[in-house]
Amino acid sequence: MSGIGYRIKCIRKENNLNQSQFAKSIGISQGNLSEIEMGNSNPSAETLVSIRAQYTVNLNWLLTGVAVDDGMTYEDQFEKRLIEVFRNLDDYNKSEIIEIIKLKIKLKTS
């Protein structure tokens, strides 16, 4: 299940909102949101623009499941967020994060 409705549901859950709260924030009814999340209908262009504006999501990711920003392609929103946060660190902390990730990978494969 990786359609646009699923991605919209992920955005809603990531922001700890119920359907009514999220629907109100993007200007649609809760019933309409429910149909979109279940994959029974597609969001309008206005709804997509509203989601993008309210929740600062990549519109390409929202539409296709592939995030492209500044010529970069991201596997998912987690990878995109990781890179955005990582860019704000100083060199020392970047090195530390890289070592932590290497350790996590090593522990996973052991």
Automatic annotation (TrEMBL):
HTH cro/C1-type domain span:
8-62
PROSITE patterns membership:
HTH_CROC1
Q: Which Gene3D superfamilies does the UniProt record give? A: lambda repressor-like DNA-binding domains
Q: Keyword check for DNA-binding, yes or no.
A: yes
| Keyword Kinase attached | no
Q: Which domain of life is it from?
A: Bacteria
- Pfam families per record: HTH_19 (PF12844)
Q: Which UniProt keywords apply?
A: DNA-binding
* InterPro entries associated with the record: Cro/C1-type_HTH, Lambda_DNA-bd_dom_sf
Q: What is this protein called?
A: Helix-turn-helix domain-containing protein
